[in-house]
Amino acid sequence: MKSSFFYPVDRSQAYTVIKINMMAGRKPETIKKLIKTLFTQIERNIGIAPIDIEITFKEQPDYCWGFRGMIGDEAKDLSYSVKV
């Protein structure tokens, strides 16, 4: 419900919070590049200004993930690299 959502006083009603959970392993430069890209692409494609966007990353060790019936640190067939 819109009336129960807290907007910081210097933000518009477009204020958006993005939370990303991922396996640990990416370099700070990789995460920074993703954050900058998200700011740019969201403004360009959706029209929400960066001042109205808050992005938070939470990384967990791979053994804290479970998918496709296995534990993250046991998955050897990922089509992407976590250590980038």
TrEMBL record:
InterPro entries xrefs: Tauto_MSAD, Tautomerase/MIF_sf
Name recorded for this polypeptide: Tautomerase family protein
Species of provenance: Bacterioplanes sanyensis
Record lineage: Bacteria, Pseudomonadati, Pseudomonadota, Gammaproteobacteria, Oceanospirillales
